[in-house]
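Hi R.,

Here's the input for the NAP complex you asked about:
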Amino acid sequence: MRAEDRTVPAPSADEVKVEQKAIGFNYFDVLQRRGLISGNEPGRVMGIEGAGVVSAIGTNVTDFAVGDRVGYLRSQGAYAETRLIAADLLFPLPDDISFEIAAALTVKGFMAWLCAVRLFEVRVGQTVLVTTAAGGIGSLITRLAAHRGAHVIGMVGSAAKHAVAREYGAADVAVGLDGAIDMVARLTTGNGVDVVFDGIGADTADRLLAAGTVREGGTITSFGASSGWPKADPEAVARRRATVLAPQALAYLKSADELRVAMADVFTLYRSNAFGEIPLTRYALRDAAALHQDVERRTTAGISVLVP
Ligand SMILES: NC(=O)c1ccc[n+]([C@@H]2O[C@H](COP(=O)([O-])OP(=O)(O)OC[C@H]3O[C@@H](n4cnc5c(N)ncnc54)[C@H](OP(=O)(O)O)[C@@H]3O)[C@@H](O)[C@H]2O)c1
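And here is the predicted structure with NAP in place:
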């Protein structure tokens, strides 16, 4: 990945031109750069979410005007100072939401809301395990679940991230999956947690089912694939009477209306302090390769944004 100068043409009829102010980093970007998602396309501009100001509109565009603040979350080509984007993929950005918070919350805040509110409503008194408590989505789920009154057990990959998970509201923190399995057994006297939110994927759900880490009738929400696509043995799921969910953001954001309503809900949640203060790590856009290296070394925590 390298920085290049390109000329951005005028928008076509259904597009707008956006001067970008903040760009969201997603683990998706790393998986895509490695060729694990959407193939290998030479010259591709990385990134799928950002926020900025409309600087030109196509002749058919009526929803947005020059000077509007906007955000988006599912359009390839975000790692850029200026970009073109279909107007249908934009949502209006309220004045009280900064560009950086929009870039931080658009995919990750939406996923946290989808997993911990819409698909499984975390409630007071429940016990929750978050397997990537120091990750972008995982840290927001941790905050949200703690805010809703759950007891959150956070799992991190290394002791260095212990404090981060606590800062996000995890009441107890375990290092590594074996540590988390032991901790859940101890804290729930062998019964297991009500729900697991898993960003690691691969065989994590199977290992948690085999260890009885999720309670009888409990739920595993596999939202991520940091170490491989998630899978769960149907027999093990059935034996535990468990529910396994594997939500994909885009399946819930198929139209401009769905996107705009969902983002309004996420920002309402943010204003209600459900995500608390969101600490951001900022990288200059030209240093995007350094950010990817840090993520692959697993030295980043929480949410990172690129600033043009
Ligand atoms: N379903 C969807 O629609 C959707 C949408 C967006 C993102 N995602 C997926 O959700 C996951 C999390 O995204 P994010 O933006 O929160 O990423 P992130 O901020 O980079 O967090 C990922 C976390 O996973 C852990 N991790 C990284 N590599 C790992 C490995 N090889 N094995 C085990 N753990 C590893 C790291 O925690 P430790 O170092 O503490 O272990 C890291 O904090 C990614 O897989 C992403 O692709 C899914």
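One thing worth noting: The chain has a mean pLDDT of 96.

Cheers,
M.
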